[in-house]
């Protein structure tokens, strides 16, 4: 590798305030992404993206076959018009016609899954198969506005079963919850922050807590002029497997903390919160029954026996879940917000001062004759369309259909074959990366999910080399220098851990978006760069540093 120089260092220093997702674009430029002068055989390895390079094929096949069946039903309705005009599907006899369609197309990819899904809905979930097919056909044709606007009726019940299995599991859970289907986890975050502010659940100057490291927007949004919130960080400890100490969790006991926002499993450490910590938070909630919890559990489906905070503290928790990563569906924009029907959000709305309730009455009176009874989750729906456009709210119906098919695919996969295949895939990639870096992985942490891994310079550097070397590197390099060196010299792009709230200099590696051989190459590039810094350290200090302990 070429020796480091200070050219462009001022520019790099000025990038310190950038979000890691914006800095990623600068790193890609440094790696020559899109630059035609670069030799064609020098491909860029972008491990900064969270977008997986795998996807669920079976429910997608099912989607396209359902579309063909729905089109046949549409054309059947207006068979007398040859000009390409179709009609709405007819409910009567729909189930029988689908059985004929399935027999005619036996062996076609997706057909067996669709037929099995109809049987599962009828026999296991106890829903009417004809009603289900009608909702799916009308939904995939997108011939009507979403009604109900929060989520289609049977779709909500099926997705609820999926969330129960993946987020709650065997944990005792009393009561039911409502779901709002949204355009991915990003939309969920936007809607929740906005509605909490509009409904006085959080106000400028209020204090919230963040479980860090955390997905960058949770760090950035509270500081916007829209919110102006104060933030207390609960820092997970890398030396303790990225778990939170009781001392950190005890920060939630402070009555000034109005809400706690958490990504679980974490991003970027990719570790689920252990049972002891979950139970400790549940005990704090008993002491703080007013504490609002938001748990973003997009990576929970990659974990074994995952239990969400939503399962332990259902009345206090807003659950966010996205289908993007597990099903390889970032382009579909599929997410959910779930709240227990008996929750503290509705209680806090009812207890607001008279003047604030009057303001909210005026805000929502155009959509209901009883604004005071409008549930928090339905306020999310209205606010997502600035209230005035509430009558056209809701996630597009084809998106909801694909969400339902993804959910049924998982519910029907009782051996967890798909989940186990993904776990093998990403864990083999992790092994390849660390093996080439020269760091022996310890026995696999039962809480590790491994969608990402975070290369913590202090922790890993001290394990492989010495504390003195680590201190010298930190003192003599800029925060993003190592990342730019990797990008420029090895054409490897990682994201800075700093932007996710990590305590030490680090880089986030996505284990989801490249092939195993690519992670071998990335590991080799990291090792070569570290070897160069070791040589520089030895020349500067006259001391020897072992390249490996």
Q: Write down the oligomeric state.
A: single chain
Strand content: 5-15%
Helix content: 40-55%
**Biggest sheet layout:** 7 strands, mixed
Mean pLDDT: 90
Quick one: overall form? globular
Taking pLDDT < 50 over at least 5 consecutive residues as the criterion, the unreliable ranges are 1-7, 35-42
| Level-2 CATH architecture of the largest domain | 3-Layer(aba) Sandwich
Topology:
Blueprint: H1 9-14, H2 20-30, E1 45-46, H3 58-77, H4 94-104, H5 111-123, H6 129-141, H7 153-168, E2 177-182, H8 184-198, E3 207-212, H9 216-220, E4 230-235, H10 246-249, E5 257-263, H11 275-287, E6 292-296, H12 309-312, E7 317-322, E8 335-340, H13 344-350, H14 354-364, H15 376-384, H16 397-412, H17 417-437, E9 452-456, H18 457-464, H19 467-476, H20 481-490, E10 492-493, E11 495-496, E12 506-510, H21 516-541
Parallel strand pairs: 1-10, 3-4, 3-5, 5-6, 6-7
Antiparallel strand pairs: 2-8, 7-8, 9-12, 11-12
Helix pairs in contact: 2-20, 3-5, 3-6, 3-16, 5-16, 6-16, 7-16, 8-15, 17-21, 18-19, 20-21
Task: Please describe what this structure looks like.
- It is a single chain.
- With 549 residues, the protein is of the alpha/beta class.
- The chain folds into three domains: 9-43 and 417-541, Alpha-Beta Complex (Aspartate Aminotransferase, domain 1), CATH 3.90.1150; 58-144, Orthogonal Bundle (Histone, subunit A); 153-395, Aspartate Aminotransferase, domain 2, CATH 3.40.640.
- It is built from 21 helices and twelve strands.
- The chain has helices spanning 9-14, 20-30, 58-77, 94-104, 111-123, 129-141, 153-168, 184-198, 216-220, 246-249, 275-287, 309-312, 344-350, 354-364, 376-384, 397-412, 417-437, 457-464, 467-476, 481-490, 516-541; strands at residues 45-46, 177-182, 207-212, 230-235, 257-263, 292-296, 317-322, 335-340, 452-456, 492-493, 495-496, 506-510.
- The chain has a seven-stranded mixed sheet, sandwiched between helices.
- Strand 6, helix 12 and strand 7 (317-322) form a beta-alpha-beta unit.
- Helix 6 (129-141) crosses helix 16 (397-412), helix 7 crosses helix 16 (397-412) and helix 17 runs parallel beside helix 21 (516-541).
- The longest helix is centred in the C-terminal third of the chain and has 26 residues, at 516-541.
- Residues 1-7 and 35-42 have low confidence and may be disordered.
């Amino acid at each position: 590798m070429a020796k480091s120089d200070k050219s462009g260092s001022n520019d790099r220093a000025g990038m310190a305030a950038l979000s890691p997702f914006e800095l990623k674009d600068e790193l890609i430029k440094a790696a020559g992404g899109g630059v035609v002068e670069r030799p064609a055989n020098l491909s860029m390895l972008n491990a900064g993206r969270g977008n997986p390079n795998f996807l669920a094929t079976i429910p997608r096949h099912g989607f396209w076959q359902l579309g063909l069946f729905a089109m046949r039903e549409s054309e059947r309705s207006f068979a007398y018009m040859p000009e390409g005009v179709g009609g709405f599907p007819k409910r009567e006899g729909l189930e029988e016609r689908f059985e004929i369609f399935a027999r005619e197309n036996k062996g076609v990819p997706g057909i067996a899954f669709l037929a099995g899904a109809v049987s599962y809905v009828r026999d296991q979930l106890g829903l009417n198969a004809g009603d289900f097919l009608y909702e799916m056909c009308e939904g995939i044709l997108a011939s009507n506005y979403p009604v109900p606007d929060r989520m289609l009726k049977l779709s909500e019940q099926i997705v609820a079963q999926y969330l129960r299995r993946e987020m709650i599991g065997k944990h005792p859970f009393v009561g039911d919850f409502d779901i709002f289907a949204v355009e991915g986890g990003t939309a969920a975050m936007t809607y929740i922050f906005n509605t909490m502010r509009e409904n006085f659940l959080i106000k400028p100057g209020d204090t919230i807590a963040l479980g860090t490291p955390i997905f960058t927007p949770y760090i950035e949004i509270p500081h916007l002029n829209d919110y102006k919130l104060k933030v207390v960080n609960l820092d997970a400890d890398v030396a303790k497997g990225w778990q939170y100490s009781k001392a950190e969790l005890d920060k939630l006991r402070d009555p000034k903390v109005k809400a706690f926002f958490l990504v679980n499993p974490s991003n970027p450490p990719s570790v689920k919160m252990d049972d002891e910590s979950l139970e400790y938070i549940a005990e704090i909630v008993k002491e703080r029954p007013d504490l609002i919890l938001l748990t973003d559990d997009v990576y929970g489906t990659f974990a074994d026996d995952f239990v969400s905070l939503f399962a332990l503290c259902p009345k206090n928790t807003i659950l966010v879940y996205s289908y993007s990563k597990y099903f390889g569906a970032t382009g579909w924009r599929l997410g959910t917000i779930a709240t227990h029907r008996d929750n503290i959000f509705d209680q806090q709305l009812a207890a607001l001062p008279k003047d604030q309730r009057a303001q909210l009455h005026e805000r929502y009176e155009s959509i209901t004759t009883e604004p005071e009874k409008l549930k928090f989750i339905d306020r999310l729906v209205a606010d997502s369309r600035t209230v005035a456009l509430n009558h056209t709210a809701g996630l597009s119906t084809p998106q909801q259909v694909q969400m339902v098919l993804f959910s049924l695919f998982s519910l029907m996969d009782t051996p967890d074959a798909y989940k186990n295949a993904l776990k093998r895939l990403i864990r083999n990639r992790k092994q390849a990366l660390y093996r080439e870096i020269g760091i022996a992985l310890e026995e696999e942490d039962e809480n590790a999910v491994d969608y990402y891994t975070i290369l913590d310079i202090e922790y890993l550097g001290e394990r492989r080399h010495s504390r003195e070397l680590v201190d010298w590197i930190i003192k003599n390099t800029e925060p993003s220098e190592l990342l730019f060196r990797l990008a420029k010299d090895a054409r490897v792009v990682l994201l800075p851990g700093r932007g996710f709230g990590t305590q030490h200099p680090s880089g986030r590696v996505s284990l989801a978006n490249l092939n195993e051989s690519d992670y071998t190459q990335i590991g080799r590039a990291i090792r070569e760069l570290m070897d160069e810094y070791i040589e520089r350290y030895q020349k500067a200090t006259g001391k020897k540093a072992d390249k490996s302990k």
